[in-house]
Amino acid sequence: ELQLVESGGGLVQAGGSLRLSCAASGFSFDAYGIAWVRQAPGKEREGISAIVMYYNITYYADSVKGRFTISSDNAKNTVHLQMNSLNPEDAEVYYCKNFLPTREWPYVRYADWGEGTQVTVDY
What we know:
The protein is an all-beta fold. It is built from no helices and eleven strands.
């Protein structure tokens, strides 16, 4: 059974850090890419970062570039998102999604996604 399970969300003060994890199972991890997508109520879904494990290529949206770092632990089929210098605009639900890297991110079609993890940033 294919699963993507996010963890690591929580409450943090502005300027603080969190590390999200996406544990993947049920598919060939190395053949896919994993992206982090976030969404808040009333806001559009935003893809913020992605990694293609086979080529170890990473991508970042301008909104998080320089603050967030995506990485993969291929031995554990897990992707991490280190988030630093968090601000209230980062307070959203974060989802991880997998995709076949047939195109350059973000022009990809997502196959599956997890249930999300909430990030809350306090002033």
